[in-house]
Design a protein that fits this description.
- There is one protein chain.
- This protein is α/β, with parallel strands linked by helices.
- It folds into two domains: 89 residues, Winged helix-like DNA-binding domain superfamily/Winged helix DNA-binding domain (Arc Repressor Mutant, subunit A), CATH 1.10.10.10; 203 residues, D-Maltodextrin-Binding Protein, domain 2.
- Helix 11 links the parallel strand 8 and strand 9.
- Helix 3 packs across helix 4, helix 3 crosses helix 6 and helix 6 packs across helix 8.
- It is flat.
- It comes from Streptomyces sp. 900105755.
């Protein structure tokens, strides 16, 4: 990165954001009030900890820790950075729990199948909580649309599933674990972003949309709401792909509000008010009829309701 980029805050995110080890050290200093105690907790020497804190201060351009014979105290800027660091570390832990579950492990004792929205936006947090409760439980995750989840369960390829459609697939029992709402979103440059009146069902049905594929819970809800008249501009097999296409300006999309919170807050997408269209749905845990979840599957089901 050039000197000009350094001064202007340019370069990649990796150059501007401290690594997880440094953030964990900062959290330990905040919690323990001592650089030496924090160093022992994370398993490094005190000189190495001091060097890491100084390196982080240079990288961020702010003083984070006041050091004195009585201990180490966060500066005002350090306290603010620590709050942000805590969120990054928690997100990394959830990311790790989710990616571990994706690995095909032969010793898996809990096989989970989840529809894409739930797998992307809810399941990592649940798996992180399950790991804290059952650290020795190996979990494998199979992600697909709601129809694929049902197929996995009925073929005995999963112990517990999560779906997001309007109906429970045949052969499965279920429990409602959460509620969700679909919303219509567009890029800020789209004409709908400047409209002053809500969007009616007829206009939505007449407009080609970026949609999930048939068999997904998201598509099922929209098709029912529009009487089967939804017109696909593009059909994509993941929520992330639909969202990326909408952000690029390809056209309007229909997505779970769980999936677009960040994009809406940063104005990369705009939510369009609807009139006379019900796009609410239940999120459900499902399992084969007559086989109530037991063991780790039961524990995961319980965690989804807390």
């Amino acid at each position: 990165m050039s000197e000009t980029e350094e001064r202007s805050g340019g370069g990649t995110l990796a150059h501007r954001v401290p690594d997880l080890g440094a953030l964990e050290l900062l959290l330990a200093v905040a919690r323990l009030g001592s650089l030496g105690a924090a160093a022992r907790e994370v398993g490094i020497t005190q000189p190495a900890a001091s060097s890491r804190i100084r390196s982080m201060e240079r990288q961020l351009g702010v003083a984070l820790v006041d050091r004195s014979p009585r201990g180490s105290r966060l500066t005002d800027a350090g306290a603010l950075v620590t709050d942000w660091a805590r969120r990054v570390v928690e997100a990394a832990e959830a990311f790790d729990a989710g990616t571990q579950a994706l690995r095909d492990r032969r010793d898996s004792r809990l096989r989970v199948a989840a529809s894409m929205t739930i797998a992307e936006y809810l399941l990592p947090g649940w798996l992180l909580a399950l790991r804290a409760q059952r650290p020795d439980t190996a979990v494998s995750l199979l992600a697909g649309n709601s129809a694929a989840v049902a197929e996995r369960l009925l073929a005995d390829e999963a112990d517990l599933g999560f779906v997001e459609g309007l109906t429970v697939p045949h052969g499965l029992d279920s429990a409602v674990i959460a509620h969700d709402r679909l919303i219509v979103v567009v890029a800020p440059a789209h004409p709908w972003a400047r409209r002053r009146r809500p969007l009616a069902a007829a206009e939505l049905a007449a407009t080609p949309l970026i949609l999930r594929e048939r068999g997904s819970g998201t598509r099922q809800v929209l098709d029912v709401a529009l009487g089967g008249l939804a017109r696909p501009l593009i059909e994509l097999s993941s929520t992330t792909a639909v969202k990326a296409s909408a952000v690029s300006g390809a056209g309007p999309a229909v997505l779970s509000e769980l999936a677009v919170g960040e994009e809406l807050s940063m104005r990369r997408l705009v939510s369009i008010p609807l009139e006379g269209i019900a796009l609410r749905r239940d999120l459900r845990a499902v399992w084969p009829t007559g086989h109530r979840p037991t063991g780790p599957a039961r524990d995961l089901l319980t965690l989804t309701r807390t």
